[in-house]
Design brief:
single chain, 464 residues, alpha/beta, Rossmann fold, 2 domains, 18 helices
């Protein structure tokens, strides 16, 4: 069978290409079973004609789409464009898993995958190849000949991640992805997150299937993939995109010792304040880690506790960043503005907390309510969000769909654009000005215009 995967990555802030782990793994699983795969990567700009030309040239039996809530409107248009052409169309990803009822209104969509896709998608393609019934596959919702949707229960979580083949990066023209992301390759050694943040889809994803949700690959398996990738591509840096890289201190110690001996390329990780520890930071630094990123989200302890389900104190946040710095690591903070029930005064607490920890770099997003999260339901229940929100165009994290009398859209956008400048203006005038431009309404077109010099600009912004 021939399977064309479709990845819409439109209106990407900063213009960097990305590798989609889910599609890469699905491609490897299908190729291992003898099927042929290809990728249509609709990067940055909407191009339905280019998509249709690729379909005509490749002649797939199956088209598999992946999507989060910010991209699903593009996927829906492509599905409808291919409707009636005799190609089986299936969608997966976070949006399909946490908001599966969207399938009911999408003509031409034959199935969706809810939860982990390696098993269900392989069984689907195998059965289609044999012309067998596909309506009863666990983990799939399937449209039956009469138009009714059969809603099968999800299957089990994959217990042993080592049984999954390494992802198909070549399908993405991976060297191009690396070069667009400052010569950096990205890896994941685990799946799942044990925390229950109200703005994140992970808690709901963890309830979809039976079995252990938080799982790690063995150190040997992870190192083997890294070796394979760095031997094939020109890579100067590595980023580990795991939800909580440092949750298991023993695992981190073993990994760092092996990584230092066998890889040695500078790397960065994302972790949590709650799982931070000075010894862990020392292991990371000794192995070649240059930076750790941790989420603050809001500087208001009250907002974090009552509405975000994040119970760490500001004191713990300050200590975590100080420990990382004392271990010789640079730091990066993740922040969000525009949460339900947030006020401008609460946002100023986020500014002040960042001033205190003085991270080497930071990121600010505007909150968006993703279906399947607790804050999505709260936003609708408390009247901040239209019940028809998902029938409208989803706004990505540079604007807000919420209507809140205590924190207006105008004030949220102002807070977003001025946040980094307000944090750094007392520390570094150059950095503050750079961030001011980056987060301005003119920042994105200017970044694209200056693409040839974006690496030195990024080096300054990241505190390097």
């Amino acid at each position: 069978m021939k399977v064309l995967f479709v990845y819409t990555d439109i209106d990407v802030k900063g213009g960097a290409r990305s590798y989609h782990f889910g599609l890469g793994l699905l491609s490897s699983v299908l190729k291992q079973a003898g099927h042929e795969t290809a990728l249509h990567y609709m990067f940055d700009a909407w191009d339905p004609d280019g998509f249709e030309a690729h379909v005509n040239a490749f002649s797939p039996d199956v088209i598999g789409y992946t999507s989060d809530s910010s991209q699903v409107r593009h996927v829906v248009k492509l599905v409808k464009r291919m409707s009636g052409k005799g190609i089986f169309q299936v969608a997966g990803g976070v949006h399909s898993s946490l908001y599966p009822k969207f399938m009911e209104s999408v003509d031409g969509l034959d199935a969706i995958c809810t939860g982990e896709g390696e098993g269900p998608v392989l069984e689907l393609v195998n059965r289609l190849a044999k012309k067998e019934d596909v309506t009863k596959i666990p983990g799939l919702w399937v449209r039956q000949p009469d138009g009714a949707i059969r809603k099968n229960l999800p299957g089990l979580f994959i217990e042993d991640l080592n049984t999954i083949p390494f992802g198909d990066r070549e399908m993405f023209n991976y060297q191009q992805v690396v070069e667009s992301d400052y010569d950096r390759a990205t890896f994941m050694l685990s799946r799942g997150c044990p925390y229950k943040c109200n703005y994140c889809g992970s808690p709901s994803m963890g309830k979809l299937q039976e079995g252990k949700y938080v799982r790690f690959r063995t150190v040997e398996n992870g190192i083997a993939e890294i070796k394979e990738v760095v031997s094939r591509y020109d890579i100067r840096q590595i980023f580990f995109a795991d939800d909580v890289f440092t949750i298991d201190r023993k695992y981190v110690k073993e990994f760092c010792e092996t990584y230092k001996k066998e890889i040695g390329i500078p790397f960065e990780v994302t972790t949590r304040v709650e799982s931070s520890h000075i010894d862990t930071f020392k292991y990371l630094a000794d192995a070649g880690c240059t930076r750790v990123a941790m989420g603050i989200e809001s500087g208001s302890e009250d907002l974090r506790r009552k509405h975000l389900n994040r119970k760490m104190t500001n004191g713990k946040i300050i200590q975590a960043f100080a420990d990382a710095r004392s271990a010789g690591l640079k730091t990066k903070s993740y922040n969000i503005v525009g949460f339900p029930h947030e006020t401008y005064e609460m946002h100023l607490e986020t500014v002040e907390l960042n001033r205190q920890i003085n991270p080497d770099s930071l990121v600010i997003y505007i909150f968006n309510p993703y279906p399947g999260t607790a804050l999505f339901d709260i936003s609708i229940k408390d009247g901040f969000l239209s019940p028809d929100f998902m029938d409208e165009d989803f706004i990505s994290r540079t604007d807000t769909p919420l209507t809140m009398p205590q924190f207006t859209r105008e004030d949220i956008l102002k807070a977003y654009r001025n946040f980094a400048f307000s944090v750094y203006r007392g520390q570094s005038a150059k950095k503050a000005l750079l961030y001011k431009v980056y987060y301005s309404r003119f920042g994105e077109p200017l970044i694209r215009l200056l693409d040839s010099v974006k690496k030195p600009i990024q080096k300054l912004a990241m505190g390097s």
